[in-house]
Amino acid sequence: MLHIHFVKVDHESLLVIGSLGIQVSSSYASGREVTSFIEMSKIKDIVINEAVYLHQIIYYLCVLLKEPSEPNEVSSVVTLFQSSKPRLNCLVKVYRSCQEILSKCQ
Question: What's the whole-model pTM score?
């Protein structure tokens, strides 16, 4: 039961509100929900990154956060959709939508 409550993610969602920021939510099989928010002023960019894991390449969407003292530097990376691991073609659609919203804010 603990495995279902803490580990088994039922679905993940991403809500991008141009003037405010990004809300990331994960719903677990037990009904528990975890939500976090990233302010738009802290976001440098959203990118698709790739990693080599054993014999395969894994693509993931991540948010680059600005360094407060150096706005041109990246302070940290927040990985999105960590549990669902969508395919590259799905990530590209989400990426393009996010970039469209972010471009209107700048």
Answer: 0.83
